[in-house]
Design a protein that fits this description.
By secondary structure, this protein is α/β, with parallel strands linked by helices. Among the domains are: 217 residues, Rossmann fold, CATH 3.40.50; 102 residues, 2-Layer Sandwich (Alpha-Beta Plaits). It contains 25 helices and 25 strands. The strands form 8 sheets. It has a 6-stranded mixed beta sheet with strand order 2-1-3-4-5-6, with helices on one face. A 4-stranded parallel beta sheet has the order 15-16-17-18, covered by helices on one side. A 4-stranded antiparallel beta sheet has the order 23-24-20-25. α14 runs parallel beside α15 and α17 packs across α18.
Length: 810
């Protein structure tokens, strides 16, 4: 264990025994990269400003972690937001925030990079900086006493609200830009040592270097920034600095506790071609870039063979639009059936959920499906350019029911431009039709409040006020109550803070700071959301600005007028705070989309026929025809599809209009090795496949009796592993068994398959023992060929420190 033993000893005695799930803070996971950090030239703290369970589910963190750790002169280590109990203990014992891999203090790193996924996590960043002993404000950091603090992610496309706290931002795809930032800081460190730069100018010297990198915004230096774009993602993200090419990677960190998304996430595409006018991700991640089918299949196989996870998630903004989705699922179906793996899709566009997709995903485990109609009527869906039909939705709901699925989650948005009460009634009407078409399907309705996000056609529209949103939520509660659905909604106060930050400018930094000092922390956790702290911060800053506009105390209505920029529609010719960020989408295109929504609304009112009638008002999916958004020049930047047949057919004039319009980076060569050594774990044991044995609901063998042998794994739990709970320990062992492909017999339930196992009784938390066991059954045909000593060694090679197989008996 290459950890700071002094810090661990203090944690072990004073902290870890007194907090929930202490393994969150121990870094015991398999798949981590642990280097001798004291002898590494460049140290990067990869920070996620939310809890471990959420951060470990984020695919982007894993990508950056692997890229940086592939370089021998960079050590990248993780740090997550501590839970309130851990936060209190760290403060009580004056222990600074530390990294998981080596227990190194965060303030000793060269760079601390935060992932910006949600605006309400911003005060968490301030907490993490404070716990680390790093000055909150960039202006207060001097010399080499503090790391350079940066941030990236979707929220960074409006960096201004965090300007006061950050030294730099990465705008756009982070793979290359993050690596270049590390190189620039390392070069500056060497210049400092050699006397090229004086310590008094060191931080500004580094910032000037960072400002020269495409996609990097440095407050106070950068005037405008063009987003970083990785034009070809048909690779596994690992950058080889010696060849300047990407190569195949083999790393997956396997969490020791249940995470929010406890599955293997494999990115199959980046970007979305649908063009929904409210969706920020659909614009900032353009163009669509798909990975080749074979690359995805290899990534899935490799991930399953190194993690032992039982579910895969094909990650994309619109998974069903992937060009080769059905051939991909056909290949994966054999794998998932053989190894009892379930598949899930985080985002399926209505109209893309075919019968074949349902059939493939239902083979092992019937995962819940999520669909997003967004609006209750076709009129409003047309206005927001949600190009789906009610017929498609009803057909897909019926298909889910027919394939045995039990649950469907539907996402809607309220407060959209031009919304009417009839659109809310349309939600209830839609639910009635779904329940009729898909009998027995449990429906959950999730309602979010529209926030006009930067860089979208709807950025000029106002946000609806809290009282109107609250009225609509209560109205929906009333009309949905008789329909027997689960109804969930977002607190309008949360949406207000989200809008306040996402649409803010430099002044917003002051409000964020005051809110933090007033107790706003952990706000991304709804039960801990502290709205009063935001009210206090707003009123304090209002008094500081000598604009006494609050006359009714601390109620929500009293300060709405102060932020009228949230509630008043903008002139499309006025400048917006975030205009200096170039997302490559032409602003003229965004304006046209904005105008089309107006014309679509007028059309729905007056039913006129004119030159603006028909398909003109609906912007087509750019998989069919280029929509002239300005991102692609079809030379250096263009959509990338997994098959040639799926490439967009462009009219010559479309291409001509895009020529030389923007200066873009060329793509990166996809030189990687996709081969996988399938026998790496089990080529000596004779366990070369996993056979399916079917059981009925009573756990009896459904087909002819299979001769089996009982196998007992005796294990010990000592030292640092004492912080693992019983269920956590069992799941870690089962993942190791799956990786090595021990052919355990399975029992079948209505929804899934589980190994037929028995366990020793749980021991008290923090106790140690050498007499724990797991018992299972394996077919005798496999038992005869098993080398138990070799098998024990292979399992132990996959277990965290302190957890060890002592003996295996047949």
């Amino acid at each position: 264990m290459k950890k700071n033993h002094k810090l661990y000893s203090k944690l072990n005695g004073d902290v870890l025994p007194f907090v929930q799930k202490p393994v969150r803070y121990l870094g015991l996971e398999t798949g981590t990269t642990i280097k001798d950090i004291k002898n590494i030239p460049l140290k990067f703290a990869l920070a996620f400003p939310d809890f471990y369970e959420l951060g470990m589910s984020h695919i982007g963190m894993g990508i950056i972690y692997d890229i940086l750790n592939s370089v021998d002169y960079i050590a990248c280590e993780r740090v997550y937001l501590p839970y309130p109990d851990m936060n209190a203990k760290l403060k009580e014992h004056n222990i600074p925030l530390f990294s998981l891999e080596s227990f190194e203090e965060i303030k000793n790193f060269d760079i601390a990079g935060f992932s910006l996924q949600y605006e309400l996590s911003y005060t968490n960043i301030l907490l993490m900086l404070e716990l680390s002993g790093i000055p909150l404000f960039s202006k207060d950091r001097t010399g080499t006493d503090s790391p350079f603090v940066g941030a990236g992610g979707p929220c960074a496309f409006n960096p201004l609200p965090l300007n006061d706290f950050m030294d730099f931002f990465i705008i756009g795809d982070g793979e290359i830009a993050t690596a270049l930032v590390c190189d620039a800081v390392l070069e500056a460190k060497n210049d400092l040592k050699s006397g090229v730069v004086d310590i008094s100018d060191y931080r500004n010297y580094v910032k000037r270097k960072l400002a020269e990198i495409r996609g990097v915004y440095v407050p106070g230096i950068s005037k405008s920034v063009k987003k970083s774009l990785l034009n070809d993602i048909d690779l596994n993200y690992n950058f080889d600095f010696k060849t300047n090419k990407y190569v195949y990677i083999n790393k997956h960190i396997v969490p020791l506790i249940e995470t929010v998304h406890n599955r293997l996430a494999v990115e199959i595409a980046r970007g979305c071609s649908s063009g929904c006018r409210f969706c920020q991700a659909g614009y900032i991640y353009r163009p669509v870039r798909e990975r080749k089918k074979d690359t995805v299949v290899n990534a899935v196989k490799h991930g399953l063979h190194t993690t032992g996870l039982e579910e895969i998630s094909l990650s994309s903004l619109s998974t069903g639009d992937y060009s080769e989705i059905e051939p991909l699922l056909s290949e994966l179906a054999e794998l998932t059936t053989e190894e009892r793996i379930s598949m899930s899709f985080p985002s399926m566009r209505i109209g893309s959920l075919s019968e074949n997709i349902l059939k493939k995903t239902a083979a092992v485990k019937k995962t819940n499906f999520t669909l997003a109609p967004e609006a209750g009527t076709q009129r409003l869906r047309n206005i927001i350019n949600k190009n789906i039909s009610e017929t498609d939705l009803l057909n897909e709901a019926a298909g889910l029911s027919q394939k045995g699925y039990k649950s469907l989650k539907l996402y809607f948005m309220i407060g959209l431009p031009f919304e009417r009460i009839a659109d809310l009634d349309g939600i209830a009407s839609l639910i009635v039709k779904i329940k009729k078409a898909a009998k027995g399907l449990n429906v959950t309705v999730n309602v979010n409040n529209f926030v006009p996000k930067p860089h979208t056609p709807f950025q000029w529209f106002p946000m609806e006020k809290e009282e109107a949103l609250s009225f609509k939520i209560n109205y929906l509660k009333k009309i949905l109550k008789p329909l027997n659905v689960n109804f969930k909604y977002q607190d309008p106060r949360v949406s207000f803070v989200e809008a306040l930050i996402s649409r803010g400018d430099e002044f917003t930094s002051k409000i964020i700071y005051k809110a933090y000092k007033s107790g706003a922390v952990y706000d991304s956790e709804s039960r801990l959301f502290n709205f009063d702290a935001w009210i206090k911060a707003i009123e304090t800053e209002n008094r500081n600005q000598n604009e006494n506009k609050f006359s009714h105390g601390n109620d929500y209505q009293s300060y709405q007028g102060y932020f009228k920029y949230l509630y008043e529609e903008k002139n499309i010719n006025d400048s917006l705070p975030w205009d200096f960020i170039d997302i490559l989408v032409d602003k003229k295109f965004l304006k046209e989309e904005y105008k089309k929504s107006y014309m679509q609304n007028a059309k729905s009112i007056y039913y006129f026929n004119s030159e603006i009638d028909g398909e003109y008002l609906s912007t087509q999916n750019c998989r069919k025809i280029c929509c002239l958004c300005g991102v692609c020049d079809f030379k250096t930047v263009s959509p990338v599809y997994s098959s040639k047949a799926a490439n967009v057919k462009m009219h010559k004039n479309n291409i001509k209009n895009n020529e030389n319009e923007k200066d873009k980076n060329s793509g990166v060569n996809d030189n990687y090795d996709s081969s996988i050594n399938k026998d790496v774990f089990f080529n000596k044991t004779g366990i070369n496949s996993v056979e399916l044995y079917n059981f009925n609901g009573n756990n009896d063998i459904k087909v002819k009796t299979v001769p089996f042998s009982e196998i007992t794994f005796t294990y010990s739990k000592r030292g640092i592993a004492k912080y693992l709970g019983h269920l956590e320990t069992v799941k870690i062992l089962l993942k190791a068994f799956r990786i090595i492909k021990i052919p355990l017999l399975y029992k079948e339930s209505e929804y899934t398959l589980r190994p037929k196992l028995s366990f020793s009784n749980p021991i008290p938390f923090m106790s140690e023992s050498d007499e724990l066991y797991i018992k299972g059954r394996i077919p005798k045909i496999h038992a005869a060929s098993m080398n138990l000593t070799d098998l024990k060694d292979k399992i132990n090679g996959l277990l965290p420190e302190g957890l060890k197989i002592i003996n295996i008996n047949l």
